[in-house]
Amino acid sequence: MANWASLPAIAMRLLRTSVLVTIVYRAQLLVWLLSGVAPLFMMMIWWELSRDQVIGGYAPSDFVSYFLGIYLVRQLTAVWVIFVLNDEIRQGTLSSRLLKPVAPFWFHVAEHVGQMLVRGPIVLTVFCAGALLFHLDLPGMAVQLPLLLMALVLAWVIIFHIYYCVGLLAFWMANSMALDAMVWSLYTVLGGTLIPIDLFPAATREWVAMLPFAAALDFPVKVLMGRVADLDLLHGFMLQLFWVLVLVALRRQLWRRGLERFSGAGI
Predict the structure, then answer these.
(1) CA-CA distance, 131 to 31, in Å (whole number)?
(2) Disulfide: which of 75, 128, 175, 218 matches 214 by Cβ 3.0-4.6 Å?
(3) Of all residues in the chain, what percent carry a pLDDT higher than 90?
């Protein structure tokens, strides 16, 4: 294992490598950015539907803010670790990762953070352009920036761990990628990509809001819009922390048991 003094240097080296790889594979970066524009289409649909009325407390400008926020949060918390884990476990290449002084988990984290450093400015430019086009209150949103950053970090940890846990199921399954579509659908429907959580039927709204998908997507967007404050804001952060703790514990347990199985198979 690496000693504590060398960790900052190792972290910077991993991030630098990830950034360089992302820049080299520019076409892949473009595909990722284009595949994330679904919230912008939903924004136009809801904006048109609400042009002459307020729907569930959302005026046209609120729908624009919400779905631009969904675009921003989804792009800044994008995760593909399930693909990497599935291939490494099934093909046995995880063995080479295990021989290195840094745990494989941190390699995967660095890959994602490095790409985010490249994607971030592009995503922010698209968001600001949309906000200016629809005359949104960007200075008002900027006031929420410290809280938004906290919510984004926790949201990323939640989404990353959900997909990491699913990816680790490749220790027991022939192909954990079979679950990717299901997780993505849950994230899309229950996170707020298609419809704000506030507009869900009253009987299910509170339950959906308690799920990790809403905590990682709907809540940061509401922080950005300034629609949560005081106790609601505290409750949102506490819910995020709860899911972080649960998912981190689950990931560690799956990793420990999966690694025993991996080593026992002689891979």
Answers:
(1) 23
(2) 218
(3) 31
Amino acid at 105: F
Tell me the whole-structure pTM to 2 decimals: 0.84
Q: Give the count of alpha carbons within 13 A of 72, CB side only.
A: 29
Q: Which stretches within 134-229 are classed as H helix?
A: 138-143, 145-168, 180-191, 202-209, 212-216, 218-225
Residue 118 main-chain phi, psi, to 5 deg? -85, -40
182 burial level (CB within 10 Å; 0-12, 13-18, 19+): exposed
Q: DSSP characters for 18-63? A: HHHHHHH-HHHHHHHHHHT-HHHHHHHHHHHHTTTS-BTTB-HHHH
H and E: helices and strands count for the chain = 14, 0
Least confident stretch, 38-47, 85-94, 128-137, 215-224: 38-47
For residue 154, how many other CB atoms are within 10 A of its CB? Answer: 22
Question: What pLDDT score was predicted for residue 168?
Answer: 93
Most confident residue range from 13-17, 52-56, 88-92, 252-256: 252-256
Burial zone of 121 (CB within 10 Å; 0-12 exposed, 13-18 middle, 19+ buried)? exposed
Q: Name the amino acid, one letter, at 155.
A: A
Look up residue 171 and give its amino acid. Answer: F
